[in-house]
Design a protein that fits this description.
Length: about 70
């Protein structure tokens, strides 16, 4: 099954003043990586770390393309 998953934990200082802005910044960064094909796997969804503006790990995302080409 092909799957895209994203999880962001917003309980640190980077989200305090402008949580929407920080989430948008993170989503733009991930969108750029997806456009380039970075972080895509086939059959192993280990997750790529998500970092806030301060460099702290705040979540993971992955795009597992297993079975995508076979149409399953």
């Amino acid at each position: 099954m092909a799957e895209f998953s994203l999880e962001i934990k917003m309980d640190n200082a980077a989200f305090a003043d402008d949580p929407g802005g920080e989430v948008a910044r993170i989503l733009r960064d991930i969108a750029d990586k997806v456009t380039r094909g970075d972080g895509f796997t086939i059959g192993e969804a280990t997750g790529t770390p998500i970092r806030d503006v301060n460099g702290n790990r705040v979540g993971t995302w992955f795009a597992d393309l297993e079975d995508l080409e076979s149409g399953q």
